[in-house]
Amino acid sequence: MDKKLYVISGSSGVGKGTVLKGFLDRNPEFMLSVSCTTRAPRDGERDGVNYFFLTKEEFQTCIDNDKFLEWAEFAGNRYGTKKKYIHQCLSEGKNVILEIDTKGALQVKTKMPEAVLIFIAPPSLEILEQRLRGRHTEDEETIQKRLHEVKQELARAEKFDYKIINDDINKAISELEDIVKNA
Ligand code: 5GP
After folding, report:
1. Is 79 exposed, middle or buried (0-12, 13-18, 19+ CB in 10 A)?
2. From CA 175, how far away is CA 16, in angstroms rounded?
3. Tens-digit pLDDT profile for residues 5-55
4. Ligand 1 within 6 A of 99 CB?
5. Ligand 1 pocket, 79 CB below 6 A?
6. Closest-CA residue to 107 (of 77, 141, 140, 80)
7. Could you tell me if the CB of 81 is within 6 A of ligand 1?
8. Which residue is closest in CA terms to ligand 1's atom 14?
9. 153 pocket-lining for ligand 1 (C-beta < 6 Å)
């Protein structure tokens, strides 16, 4: 099987992190790309592991020097994937997964049409809101911003190759495995 780039997007709180972790535990030949961001680390997050945490100035310099395969603004912060990092992973023979927002995913598809885009959707907007609040990691203003993004994301998701509805975590992981095997 050729090494491929898979792009996974989903609304905040949809459980995509849990689906991905379950998938990666069962499929260690896949690696998750580490993105750059200007947002502050949450408790327990480490530089170089969860993200490369950059200042706004450092991020801007990367944009100016055309270092990103894609980048996007999300809920007041910038997030981006370094070109060099992805090409290095693919040339080392790894299957790479990007966990990025829908705007970034569509940019990747334009530049690398062979990338497989997968959207993880919530069973309903109400359930999504409950999950987002249940995390207790964001303040109210941030939650409101993130909910506002959700509707736009669902519209962009129409252009994705596959959609998984996350109403059962194990079912979602199995669906992801089926997609990856057959894509
Ligand atoms: P969080 O702040 O919760 O870690 O991530 C917020 C959003 O940014 C999520 O939808 C996540 O998928 C997205 N994101 C993370 N890394 C990247 C990236 O490199 N590029 C883009 N476009 N979005 C990203």
Report:
1. buried
2. 13
3. 999 998 767 788 899 999 999 999 999 999 999 999 999 999 999 999 999
4. yes
5. yes
6. 80
7. yes
8. 100
9. no
Q: Which fold has domain 5-182?
A: Rossmann fold (3.40.50)
Q: How far from 168 is each of 14, 19, 137, 175, CA to CA, in Å?
A: 11, 10, 23, 11
pTM metric for this prediction: 0.88
Output phi, psi for 165, to 5 deg.
Answer: -95, 120
Atom of ligand 1 nearest to the CA of 9: 12
Ligand 1 pocket mutation, candidates 74, 85, 132, 136, criterion most atoms within 8 A of CB: 74
CB of 100 within 6 A of ligand 1: the answer is yes
104 lines ligand 1 (CB under 6 A): yes
Q: Which two tokens stand for residue 7?
A: 């792009």
Structure tokens at 46: 């480490």
Per DSSP bridges, beta strands 51-53 and 35-37 are: parallel
Task: Identify which of 50, 76, 57 has the alpha carbon closest to the alpha carbon of residue 143.
Answer: 76
- What phi and psi values does residue 100 have, to the nearest 5 degrees? -135, 170
Residue with the two structure tokens 């070109």: 83
CA quadruple 72, 75, 77, 81: dihedral positive or negative?
A: negative
The whole-number pLDDT of residue 34 equals 95
